[in-house]
Write a structure and sequence with these properties.
By secondary structure, this protein is of the alpha+beta class. The chain is 36% helix and 21% strand.
Length: 164
């Protein structure tokens, strides 16, 4: 709330945010209320996360560490070299530590985007560098393609309504 109060002075809005933080989250039929922090899965969680991590956006140096793309607690940094990517990861880890947070090891990796490479998942989509063949047999066009990740496609069967 301190981070929010730095930018918001409307007492009615602050009161509403405090109420949302106290509301808790229902999980398996049981309401869970956190003593501190924002409840994971709560409707206010992305807003509060963006406000809290906005400090990283302000401290980030694009020239030195690459382009930071962030939504709530998900982030991707686009760099020109492996050296820049390693420096960016170190900087991001340091900035998060100042806030008392650390990156999730299982989701943190450096990926080199090349044709046929592994790609990465971000905001519910799998991103991979691909090349589309040209109509005249030329080199074609290389671009970053996006589609749902394989596990999402496997778990969600396609349903077609009888009315369509």
């Amino acid at each position: 709330m301190q981070a929010v109060e730095e930018r918001v002075c409307d007492q009615a809005v602050l009161k509403l945010l405090r109420a949302l933080l106290r509301a808790g989250v229902m999980s398996d039929g049981v309401v869970r209320r956190e003593v501190t922090g924002t409840p994971q899965g709560g409707v206010i969680s992305p807003l509060m996360c963006n406000e809290y991590l906005h400090r990283i956006d302000r401290a980030w140096d694009v020239r030195e560490h690459g382009v930071l793309v962030r939504f709530a607690d998900d982030a991707v940094v686009m760099c020109r070299s492996r050296q820049q990517a390693e420096a960016a990861l170190a900087r991001l880890t340091a900035l998060l530590a100042e806030l008392g947070v650390e990156p999730k090891a299982a989701k943190t990796q450096i990926v080199h985007l090349t044709e046929g490479g592994q790609g990465f998942d971000f905001l519910g989509f799998h991103h991979r560098w691909v090349r589309a063949e040209g109509r005249t047999g030329g080199k074609g066009v290389a671009f970053l393609a996006r589609w749902p990740p394989k596990k999402a496609v496997k778990s969600k069967p396609l349903r077609v309504s009888e009315h369509e």
